[in-house]
Design brief:
By secondary structure, this protein is of the alpha/beta class. Helices cover about 50% and strands about 15% of the residues. The chain contains 35 helices and 24 strands.
C-alpha cells in the first residue's frame, strides 16, 4: 500500500515561475495549475498510489512565528496572478475526488510530516513530492522524498541510501545541520559565518547540537569556537523552527484519503473551462464514448430539382435554415460541395452545389425571405465566389450565442444543442474523423451526411427563439441587430477583397535581412571563437556560460536559460549579447513574417485573412490564417514589412486610427471633471496625469514622468495590479502602488467609477459595455481574496475595452454603408484594434478620407470628442 503526499503550495509556486504564462480563453492565468496537474498525473501513473493527499499552507502565522517573529519575513509576497490559482486548483482537486488540507497555524510540510508518521504506523509506504529540501528530514525506511529539481517533471528521489550517500548523515540529523547554517529562504538565521560544509562537518563528528555544544573544548580555532558560543541559543532556536512537526491536528483518517474514481463530468467541465485539452485525454475511454449515447434522428432527403424547390420557396414565402458544406479546412480557400435547406417546420433537403443550384437559388438568397444559419459569414464568402449575395433579412445563431455567452473558446452546433436543448447530435469530427484517416465530405456515406445536416438545421431552427428571447432579456437587441449582424457584411467583404501584397518587396526585405543575419552570425562566431547553432538554446548556453563565463541568470530543467529576459540582464557584460539579440529579432522577422507571409499570397497577389467576431470576450475582432492584426510595428526593422502591403494600381490606402479612445471612454464613463476638461482643452493627457500624480507644474513634467504616467493611464484602463505595473516600469511594488493611489486621488471621478463598477459586478455577477455587451465574472464573488481581486480587474477593464470594440464596429458598419451610398470606388480591407484601413481609387481618396474621419468620430456621442487621425499612402508603412 502506498500514500502519495504532495506539497501543493510548493509545487504550484514552482510551476508558476517555471512555465510560460498560460491563460485560458477568458484570460485567466493557469500556468501554476497546469504545471501542478502535469506533475500530479505523472506521479499517479508512475507510483500508482492507494491514497493521496495534497497539503497547502494557510495565510495565517504559525507556531514558528511565535518562536521567531522574523520567520519568513524576507519573502516577497506572492503576486495575485499566482495566488488566484490556488482556488482553481482546489476546485479541480475536488472534482478529481482528491483530498486537500490546510491547517491554521501549521504549514504544508507539517501536514505531510504528520501523515508520514500515520503511514508508518499503518505500514503504508509514503511518497512525498515537493520542491523544498526541508522534507528530506522525513526520509526513513518507510518514507521517500521526490524533490523537484527543475521545471515540473524533473525529480530526484531521496531515500535512506541517497541521503547517506549525499550527506553522510541520517535524515533526522539534517535538522541539526539547519540549526547551525540556517535557511535564507525562510529567514532562519542559524549561526553567522557557518555554511553547509562546516555544519555538516560538525554534525558528522558530533551527531547533534547537544553533543556538539558539550564538546566545544575540542573545536579548533578561537574564532570558530567563539561563533559557536555566541550562536548557541540561535542554533537551538533555528533547529526548532526548522523541524517538521508530526502531530498536526489533521482531520482526515487514512481511509478518507483512498484514491477513488473522479467525477468525470465535473473534471471535464473544469478542464474545458481552463482549456486543459491535454488533460481531457486522461478521461477514461468509456466516459468519452458514453457521451454520444442519444442521437436524435430528423427527416431529410437528397434532391437535384433546384428549379422546382427554389420556386416553391419563393411562392410560399417560407423562412428557412441552411448550411453549406465545403471541401477544405479554410472556407476562404475552399469550394462548396453541398447545401442543406430546411423550411421552418419542414424536412431538410440536401443539394449538390453546382451550376444549377447557383442559377436557381441566387434569387432565393437575394430575396427578402428570412434566412437562418450558424456562422453565416462562411456562406456569404463562398456564395460570393459564384455571384450569389445573401441579403437581409438573416440571422446568425452562432453570433447570438456568442453575445449570450462570450466566454467559450469556440462555438459548435453540437455543443449548442447540448447546452440549450439537452440532446446529442453529430459533430463535424464525428462525421469525418481525425488524423490521417480523416475523410472528405465527398466520401461520407449519404445516411451519415443526411443525419449530420438535418440535425444541424433542426438545432438552428430551435435555437433562434431561445437565443433571441435571451438577447431581448439582456437588452442586447441593438447590439445584435445594429452592430454585430450588420458587421457580417463588412467582414465578409474584407475576407473576399483581401490585401494586395508585393512578393518582390518581401523578397527584397528578406534578402537584406538574410545578409544581416549572415553578418551577425559571423560576428557572433568571431566573438565566441567557435561556430555553433545560434538557435540552439543548449549550444548557446554552453558558449555564454561555460566558454565565455558570463554570470548564469536562470536555469531550466534542460540547462541554461537564454531567453529574452536573460539576454536583457546580460547586456553590457559582453558585446556578443547585443549581437545575439539583433540576430534573434531578424531571424524572427524572416521566419515568422517574411517567409510565412510569402506563402499566403494568392494568384491575384492578395493575402486573405479570416476575421472572427466570436473569439474575444471583450468583443474585439480577431484575425487569423494569417493574423494581419499582428504585423510588426514596435521596431523600425519590423515596420518595414508593412511596405509590402500596398494599394492596387490606381488606388491609395487610407488609414484612420482612434486617438486614445480607451482613455476618452474612461473620461466619459467616469464623468471625471479633471479628465474631461483635459480632453476638451486638448491637453496632453499623459503629461496632465504626470503633473497631477507627481505634483509638479505642467511645464516641469519630465519625459520619464510622462512615460510613467502613460503606463499608469493605460494600466488603470486594464485594471493593472501594483505587481503588474512594477513589472512594466521595473520599479518596486510599493512605488507602483503609490502611483496608482496618486492617480486615483488626482481623478476622484475615476476612483468613484471604479468602485461603482466593481460593486455592480459583485451584485450582478457580470459587467457590460455602453451597448450592453455582457461579460460574466464568476471570480468577483470568490471566497478567495486573490480570485476576487482578479475579477475586479476584469470588471474594470471590460466596459472600457468592450465599448471601444463596439464603437469601432459601429464605425466600420457606417463607413462600409456610406462608401456604397456615395458610390466610392473602394473597400474597407483591414481593421486593427482601433484602426480602419481602406483601399480607394485615387480619384475618390479625398471624399473617402472625409467619410472615414467623419463616421469614426461620430460613431458615438461622448462627453469628450472622439478623434481619428487619418493618413494616406501607397502602402501600409506610409499610411500608418
Amino acid at each position: 500500500m502506498k500514500i502519495l503526499l504532495i506539497d501543493g503550495s510548493g509545487l504550484i509556486f514552482r510551476a508558476f515561475y517555471a512555465l510560460p504564462k498560460l491563460k485560458n480563453s477568458q484570460g485567466i492565468l493557469t500556468n501554476g495549475v497546469y504545471g501542478f496537474l502535469t506533475m500530479y498525473f505523472n506521479a499517479i501513473e508512475k507510483y500508482k498510489p492507494d491514497y493521496v493527499l495534497v497539503a497547502f499552507d494557510k495565510k495565517s502565522k504559525t507556531f514558528r512565528h511565535k518562536e521567531f517573529k522574523e520567520y519568513k519575513a524576507t519573502r516577497q509576497k506572492a503576486p495575485n496572478e499566482l495566488l488566484q490559482q490556488f482556488s482553481i486548483l482546489e476546485e479541480i482537486l475536488d472534482s478529481l475526488n482528491i483530498k486537500h488540507l490546510g491547517i491554521e497555524g501549521f504549514e504544508a510540510d507539517d501536514i505531510v510530516g504528520t501523515y508520514t508518521r500515520i503511514a508508518k504506523e499503518n505500514n503504508i509506504e509514503a511518497i512525498c513530492i515537493t520542491g523544498d529540501k526541508d522534507y528530506l528530514q522525513l526520509v526513513n525506511d518507510n518514507t521517500s522524498v521526490f524533490l523537484m529539481k527543475t521545471g515540473v517533471t524533473n525529480m530526484k528521489e531521496y531515500n535512506l541510501d541517497t541521503i547517506k550517500e549525499e550527506y553522510e548523515i541520517e535524515p533526522e540529523q539534517l535538522i541539526d545541520v539547519k540549526g547551525l547554517m540556517g535557511d535564507k529562504s525562510d529567514n532562519i538565521p542559524g549561526i553567522e559565518g557557518i555554511g553547509e560544509k562546516t555544519a555538516l562537518k560538525y554534525i558528522k563528528k558530533y551527531g547533534n547540537l547537544e553533543n556538539l555544544f558539550d564538546h566545544l573544548d575540542e573545536i579548533k580555532g578561537e574564532k570558530a569556537k567563539e561563533k559557536l558560543i555566541n550562536g548557541q541559543t540561535i542554533a537551538f532556536m533555528s533547529r526548532k523552527i526548522g523541524t517538521i512537526v508530526k502531530n498536526a491536528p489533521v482531520n482526515f483518517e487514512i481511509e478518507d484519503l483512498k484514491l477513488t474514481s473522479p467525477n468525470w463530468s465535473e473534471v471535464e467541465s473544469e478542464f474545458e473551462k481552463y482549456n486543459f485539452t491535454k488533460f481531457l485525454e486522461k478521461m477514461p475511454k468509456e466516459h468519452k464514448e458514453g457521451k454520444n449515447k442519444s442521437l436524435d434522428e430528423f427527416e431529410y432527403e437528397f434532391s437535384d430539382d433546384c428549379e422546382k424547390y427554389s420556386s416553391n420557396l419563393l411562392q410560399n414565402s417560407k423562412a428557412f435554415t441552411f448550411k453549406g458544406i465545403y471541401d477544405g479546412e479554410n472556407y476562404i480557400k475552399s469550394k462548396l460541395i453541398f447545401i442543406a435547406i430546411k423550411p421552418i417546420g419542414e424536412k431538410t433537403t440536401i443539394f449538390k452545389y453546382n451550376n444549377q443550384f447557383v442559377k436557381h437559388f441566387k434569387k432565393v438568397f437575394e430575396s427578402n425571405l428570412k434566412k437562418y444559419s450558424f456562422d453565416i459569414k462562411e456562406e456569404k464568402v463562398l456564395f460570393k465566389k459564384d455571384g450569389i449575395e445573401i441579403f437581409s433579412p438573416f440571422d446568425d445563431i452562432m453570433l447570438m450565442e456568442y453575445l449570450y455567452d462570450p466566454t467559450k473558446s469556440g462555438y459548435e452546433i453540437k455543443e449548442s444543442a447540448k447546452t440549450f436543448l439537452n440532446f446529442e447530435i453529430l459533430s463535424k469530427d464525428d462525421v469525418l474523423g481525425k488524423g490521417k484517416n480523416k475523410l472528405n465530405f465527398n466520401d461520407v456515406k449519404k445516411d451519415k451526411l443526411g443525419s449530420y445536416l438535418s440535425s444541424n438545421l433542426n438545432v438552428i431552427e430551435k435555437l433562434y427563439d431561445i437565443l433571441y428571447k435571451k438577447l431581448k432579456e439582456f437588452n442586447m437587441v441593438f447590439l445584435y441587430e445594429d452592430i454585430e449582424k450588420k458587421l457580417i457584411d463588412v467582414l465578409s467583404s474584407m475576407e473576399i477583397n483581401g490585401f494586395e501584397t508585393k512578393k518582390e518587396v518581401l523578397e527584397e526585405i528578406k534578402g537584406e535581412v538574410s545578409k544581416k543575419i549572415d553578418n551577425l552570425t559571423e560576428e557572433i562566431y568571431s566573438l565566441s571563437n567557435e561556430e555553433f547553432n545560434i538557435n540552439s538554446t543548449k549550444q548557446l548556453g554552453k558558449v555564454l556560460f561555460d566558454d565565455l563565463k558570463l554570470p548564469v541568470i536562470k536555469k531550466t530543467k534542460t540547462g541554461y536559460s537564454t531567453d529574452a529576459k536573460v539576454l536583457s540582464a546580460l547586456r553590457g557584460k559582453h558585446p556578443i549579447i547585443e549581437k545575439i539579440e539583433d540576430y534573434r529579432e531578424l531571424y524572427k522577422l524572416k521566419s515568422t513574417y517574411l517567409e510565412s507571409l510569402e506563402e499566403e499570397i494568392e494568384d491575384d497577389n492578395r493575402i486573405r485573412s479570416t476575421f472572427n467576431q466570436t473569439v474575444t470576450s471583450t468583443g474585439r475582432i480577431s484575425s487569423k490564417d494569417p493574423n494581419l492584426q499582428n504585423l510588426p510595428i514596435k521596431t523600425e526593422r519590423g515596420r518595414l514589412i508593412r511596405k509590402a502591403f500596398v494599394a492596387k494600381k490606381g488606388y491609395k490606402l487610407i488609414d484612420a486610427d482612434y486617438s486614445q479612445i480607451e482613455l476618452r471612454l474612461l473620461a466619459h464613463l467616469s464623468k471625471d471633471e479633471n479628465m474631461i476638461n483635459a480632453f476638451l482643452n486638448g491637453d496632453d493627457i499623459h503629461k496632465k496625469t504626470a503633473s497631477e500624480v507627481f505634483h509638479v507644474k505642467l511645464d516641469d513634467v519630465t519625459k520619464s514622468q510622462r512615460s510613467k504616467a502613460k503606463a499608469v493611464n493605460f494600466g488603470i484602463v486594464y485594471g493593472i495590479s501594483s505587481f503588474g505595473l512594477s513589472q512594466n516600469l521595473n520599479i518596486s511594488r510599493k512605488e507602483a502602488s503609490d502611483y496608482i493611489e496618486g492617480y486615483k486621488n488626482s481623478y476622484p471621478g475615476v476612483k468613484k467609477y471604479m468602485q461603482e463598477v466593481v460593486k455592480f459586478a459583485k451584485d450582478n455577477g457580470y459587467t457590460e459595455t455602453l451597448y450592453h455587451r455582457r461579460r460574466y465574472i464568476p471570480e468577483i464573488n470568490s471566497r478567495n481574496f486573490n480570485m476576487r481581486n482578479f475579477g475586479e480587474r476584469i470588471a474594470l477593464n471590460t466596459p472600457i475595452q468592450g465599448t471601444a470594440a463596439d464603437i469601432i464596429k459601429i464605425a466600420m458598419v457606417n463607413v462600409y454603408k456610406k462608401l456604397k451610398e456615395e458610390n466610392v470606388d473602394g473597400n474597407l480591407i483591414l481593421q486593427i484594434h482601433d484602426e480602419i484601413i481602406l483601399e480607394v481609387k485615387e480619384s475618390d481618396v479625398e471624399v473617402a478620407a472625409k467619410i472615414l474621419k467623419k463616421e469614426m468620430e461620430n460613431a458615438a456621442k461622448l462627453m469628450v470628442p472622439l478623434i481619428a487621425d487619418v493618413n494616406i499612402g501607397e502602402n501600409l508603412y506610409e499610411s500608418k
